[in-house]
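I am still getting used to backbone structure tokens and would like to learn alongside you. Label the sequence line and the structure token line clearly, so we can match residues to local backbone shapes. Go ahead whenever you are ready, and we will take it from there:
>
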Amino acid sequence: MTLHTPKSILKTLGGESIRDAAELRARLVPELRRLLDEGHEEAQAKLQESQNGFICARYLCERMDELVRIVHDAVVQHLYPAANPSAGERLAVVATGGYGRGTLAPGSDVDLLFLLPYKQTAWSESVVEAMLYVFWDLKLKVGHATRSVEECLREAHADMTIRTSLLEARFLFGDRELFDNLEKRFDQEIVATSAAEFVDAKLKERDARVTKAGASRYLVEPNVKDGKGGLRDLNTLFWIAKYVYRVKEPKELVKARLFTQAEFNLFSRCEEFLWRVRCHMHFATGRAEERLTFDLQRTIAERIGFAPRGGLSAVERFMKAYFLIAKDVGDLTAIVCAELEARQTKRRPMLDRMFGRFRRRSGGALVSEGFIIDNNRLNVENEEAFERDPVNLIRLFWLADRRNLAIHPDATRLATRSLRLIGHNLRTDPEANKLFLEIITSKNAPEVVLRRMNEAGVLGRFVPDFGRIVAMMQFNMYHHYTVDEHLIRSVGVLTEIEAGQLGSEHPLANQIFPSIRNRRALYVAVFLHDIAKGRPEDHSEAGAVIARKLGPRFGLTEAETETVAWLVEHHLLMSNTAQSRDLSDPATIKSFAEVVQTMERLKLLLVLTIADIKAVGPGTWTGWKGQLLRNLYQETEVILGGGAVDLARSERVRLAQERLRSELPDWTDAEFEAFAARHTPGYWLKTDETRRAKQARLLREAEKGGRTVTTAYETDQFRGVTELTILSPDHPRLLAIVTGACAAAGGNIVDAQIFTTTDGMALDTIVLSRAFDRDEDELRRAERVAKAIERALKGEVKIADLVDGKRPAKERSKAFHVPPEVNIDNSLSSRQTVIEISGLDRPGLLYDLTTALGKLNLNIASAHIVTFGEKAVDVFYVTDLTGTKITHAGRQATITRTLLEVFKAEESEPLHRRSA
């Protein structure tokens, strides 16, 4: 490729005079645009060929250096020549910030400092202004400042961002003496006297940035630039080292004894990989995109050249590589930042967020054989501590937990360097396993300690099965964290429950925890429940096999090991049953109870399920899920306690009617008997007392007002849901109309309870997930959804048109593929056929499914809607028009084929969000 060169571009301007700045830009900008475009094409070709981020970033920076010089020379030669410049007609053009580091991504900002002498003239202002107009015409994102040396120093004193920018200043061209003066005075007057202040500010800035971008480096849509473990962490590390140790280049970090040569090599590998990913992202999107979204992950994996292997897809392998790099970045920055913090600010760090009170110890005090207190951190006594006794690699973290101490960065670094000591002998050592089990089951801060072990590399080496899932992501929208981070967070949630925290979120779990006998088994099961993710076989079954292997090694009894294996194998059972089955159906409870068998297992499974769901990510746990789990627990408790949920149905109906009668003292006996006669036994058995009373009043008011279609709504902040009650003449497409109206109005349905009165009226309860925190906002939304339903039921709007208006644009590609599946089961309910449908979620899906079921002449008794990120799992309890199950094989095949067609008809549609 023949690139435009500075000489060729300046030559095109010719020797003749140019009248004004507008003419200069008109002639110069098109040539520069071609230079930029050619440079980007060449940079992208180099990136694809070399797969080296530095080569691309440095090449782009070199091309930008050329462009800035061309603009300057053109302006000075043709607009503001200075044949005999005065002392005030001097100018140094300086690259600052990221540009000053000598690397640019395709969409990066260009930060420039126009450095002027103390005594300025109109010439310099005119030159700078003319240059900026050219940059702006080129649509470059230019951050610029025009200052004298004195102004730079004054601003740097007052503003840490400007100080950081000047720290990376790079001379481009112009008056070298001006730049040298700035560099010398900046070093002597600011850097030399404010190291502690700078370190403190940069560490606080990093904390704030990471919190904003996402506190965990294991978020599955990471920010490559500003996220934890991203490029900015490496920048921060170098800024601090450069400021404190006055180094010029990253390789000098070894000379400063902050890094060993091996650690610096790791630093360089991390930086190159992150630059590679970032440049690919900018090229792929055509903009400065810094978040590695699901849409981008598959594209970048392909551009870099990852392929499927070992049970992982190409994108999962790429993301595992990314998270391992992010982990390495975290390790490097944590070691250096913590060490510098200790040297500069002398703060007293504490290990645990909850148990922060610990008596201050003098430095160097021996706390255990081989370990000392060093500046209020746990440290090794000498560098032979792990060589002398490899068990100390586990004891280090055990002591940190027991003494509630942060671990000194020197100890963490030595542990990472000593991973070769963790082999078969240490893994089978009874003392090491005893200490490890005590870490997992600690009442102090097991989450914090396990994370420290993981970051040091000790956890994955000591438990190789855990090592397999370190940095492993699951390519879906449901899980917010990598598998290892999810398991560690699960242990943290379990600790919170045992400590009695957040009782308002899970009151039953807090209540029953003290009565749990198998506490150790529960903690180990939570730690292991996803240990087999990423394997070809079912991860629950494979996890149970691993649990049976690890239990005895950790020191669990045979009974404890079997409990752990059972919990791991069935860790999804309670969640799936609660969310996708009809809990008012006796067959559901019987089937669940047959698997659980004992009250102890029921307690363990409830607590494990809560810990698992809450550790998935922010917003995954809701009060509605908690209520469903409590309902399942309480119904199962009846059977396991010797009761029978399907006995004496007539007696239960009678008691329900008596309780409702007492709630309606203003009703006459005749009114109540007429109301009771309108409902089937199923209504009395399935609805709770509060809902029955409200619905009785709703029906009475509608009847008095002569309304055949009416709605009511209320919100429940604790459960995180809003309930809509709908009264309407029954007909086969009723639920389809309701779901369509909800979709059009932005209502996300999570459950539906459907009844038909003996006189042909439908009385349905639709449960929507809550959208707003404030009740008044949520009630306004509920009113909007309710009105949309009423209008649709009255035929005032065409529901299909409303739903179509909410569908996503077909031309947008979707990131996920979820093969659709339909399962028809007659064993899960004694009265209805259960149809479970799963597939890729999309707006209007529930409307399309209920419409299809209506056309198949199926009566829907209840619907249970679950969304796992991009995957929808919708379960319908149905009968045919005669009220019987669907048993004929041909009829079942027709149902399956019709429902699968719903997904095929829309398989080109992208996923935005769940609307119905």
